[in-house]
Amino acid sequence: GESVGLHLPTLSVQEGDNSIINCAYSNSASDYFIWYKQESGKGPQFIIDIRSNMDKRQGQRVTVLLNKTVKHLSLQIAATQPGDSAVYFCADYTGGFKTIFGAGTRLFVKA
Amino acid sequence: NAGVTQTPKFQVLKTGQSMTLQCAQDMNHNSMYWYRQDPGMGLRLIYYSASEGTTDKGEVPNGYNVSRLNKREFSLRLESAAPSQTSVYFCASSTHQETQYFGPGTRLLVL
Fold it and tell me: Is B23:B101 a contact under the CB 8 Å cutoff?
């Protein structure tokens, strides 16, 4: 079946460094991907999205890269701050009302 | 705007008890969703409502019922709670099907 997975369950970075969180998906027909941030005790929060006709999209301090050839996307956070500590997960909108969510990578930011 | 609100925040039930989780959104979104989040797993869709007056099963509907009371409100009912339903429940809403906005969650423990 379809799946969305993340390469690492946890990632620890030094404050000020760049963070890269990776995600793999299985459905080659997927058209739209979303990254969410979930802080402890809170609901997921939309960060950035990308459509399959794009390779890269930039937001404020975040960049998402999409490699359709290997069905991989990544979230890059520039100059990581303590407030970036959270679980990040990718989501694959497959059509209709179906979105497949990855399990998430927990990002720890060391001061 | 409050966005998506959920009540209660926490609940402890005994096996066999019933309860209703409430969700409301003030963003005038057409679609609403109920998910459960379990450790090590991505969000799984329980039920969704594409628009007022309609509801449909998601990936894991067994043991649950829903009501789309009006455009703002979408409730989730557990008729006879089981320990397997211990989870964190998130309500979400969307205008377009792709990007969903989540509530803060309800943490449910079934003993």
Answer: no
